[in-house]
Structure formats: structure tokens, C-alpha cells
Specification:
The protein is mainly α and 150 residues long. Helices cover 56% and strands 6% of the residues. The chain has a three-stranded antiparallel beta sheet.
Length: 150
């Protein structure tokens, strides 16, 4: 599955909660946490796109290119955005992440990702595209599921 499909699912949550506002920056961080926890729970990626460590935190390039026109504005959803069918496990992970993380602002989410090892390690590497490895996400966020610090 492509990250753009998961982004549509995340944006659709705004139709369920009229107080929820998702900007492009916030969308990127929510995508990151969905991928990280999906990897930690199932061992499999939620989507196939790489996540890059950019200055403002984790970014999926295809989602960036699709939604960058919104800049820092809220991405409004007036009707449900069509998205592909996905597994019950994936829906559960997205729902759990949205419940836990959507209450934070884009800036708060950026600060959170900046304070966590997967983004820090990828960002510290030299080179243009600093990919956050799926193994680093899976291993780091698994501790929050088992309550074991790493």
C-alpha cells in the first residue's frame, strides 16, 4: 500500500471529529507514528514508502509532494476521501495512533519525533535522503507496547 492511501484515511478522521484539524506537518508526523507502531505490532510495514528525516521531522516524500500546496493550513475534508481497503489490524493501529497522537499540535508532534531515537539517528547521518529505517522504528516503538525501556 502507498503512504498516500494511509494519509487519506488519517485525513478522513476530521469527518468524525469536527474539532480535529490536520495540517500538512501534522499529517506527516501522524503517518510516521502509524508506520512505527504498525511495524512494532505486526512486524510488517503499513505502507511501502520510505520515511525521511528532514529538518522538521519525519516526511514521506510522495505525501509531501501531494499536500505541500496546503503549506501550514488545515487540509480540509468535506466528504470522505476514497481509499483502498486495508486489514483490520492496520485499521486498529491507525485508530489507536489517532486516539493517542491527534490531540497534539503539529509543533508538539515535531518536538516529540525530534526527541526520539529513530529520527535522531537518521538525521545525524550524512547525505541528502536520510531514510529512517523500519528496523529502528520497530525496535524503538516496541518498548512502548511492552513497557520495556531500550
Amino acid at each position: 500500500m502507498k503512504a498516500l492511501e494511509i494519509a487519506k484515511r488519517i485525513l478522513n478522521y476530521q469527518l468524525l471529529d469536527y474539532t480535529l484539524e490536520i495540517s500538512h506537518l501534522k499529517l506527516q508526523k501522524l503517518l510516521f507514528y502509524c508506520q512505527a507502531y504498525h511495524l512494532s505490532i505486526s512486524g510488517e510495514p503499513l505502507f511501502e514508502d520510505d520515511i525521511l528525516a528532514w529538518d522538521y521531522g519525519p516526511v514521506v516524500r510522495s505525501v509531501y509532494e501531494n499536500y505541500k500546496k496546503h503549506d501550514s493550513s488545515i487540509i480540509s475534508v468535506k466528504k470522505e476521501l476514497k481509499s483502498e481497503d486495508i486489514s483490520a489490524t492496520s485499521i486498529g493501529v491507525i485508530s489507536t495512533v489517532m486516539g493517542a497522537y491527534s490531540k497534539f499540535s503539529a509543533i508538539e508532534l515535531m518536538g516529540m519525533t525530534h526527541s526520539e531515537r529513530p529520527w535522531q539517528e537518521a538525521y545525524a547521518r550524512k547525505g541528502k535522503d536520510k531514510i529512517i529505517s523500519q528496523d529502528s522504528m520497530k525496535n524503538y516503538y516496541k518498548q512502548f507496547l511492552t513497557n520495556e525501556k531500550q
